[in-house]
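Input record (one chain):
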Amino acid sequence: MKEFFKKLRIAAYVTALLTIALGVVLVAWPMEVTGLICRVLGVLLVVMGAVYIFGYFVEGRGILAITGGLLFLLLGVWIFITPGSIATLVPIVIGVVLLVHSLRDFQMASEAKQNGSDRWMLLFLLALLNCVFGVVCICDSFGVISVAVRILGIALIYDGISNMIIVYHTVQAVRYAAEKITPIDVEAKEIDE
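The corresponding structure, as predicted from the sequence alone:
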């Protein structure tokens, strides 16, 4: 049992240290990591496109196979060559969604005011904040990505440190409980029925 907990503790500490290291990398180099992920995605799309095209020529698949294969191939090459273009699209799409929601929120705040709500100003401010977030996502997509990746890195660092603390204290508690258990030495007696 003692050996099992020792192996468990070592595995947990190694995992926690790797998590912390990944978190530090994300905090220190957020855009480089994002670019690497986009390039890996580009390579996967190129491979997928090549498989489709290969299937068209070798197995005689339909015209959709070669069309889809060429699209995947071109998209993969484009993503690999310009990984930042894909990385910036995500915040822009989110920004557009936020702007659309904020327009709806402004309309609802206006309806609340027309119907006599005393909190219409709070609703208006919430809609305005949503609109600001949308504009920031659209105008500064690289900054948004950088902040998001850094937050992810901080979360991973926290996860690794908290796991190490939890494992340490759990092992200490189990060890303390095991030390308190003392075996009882008794003689066995047969019971007559």
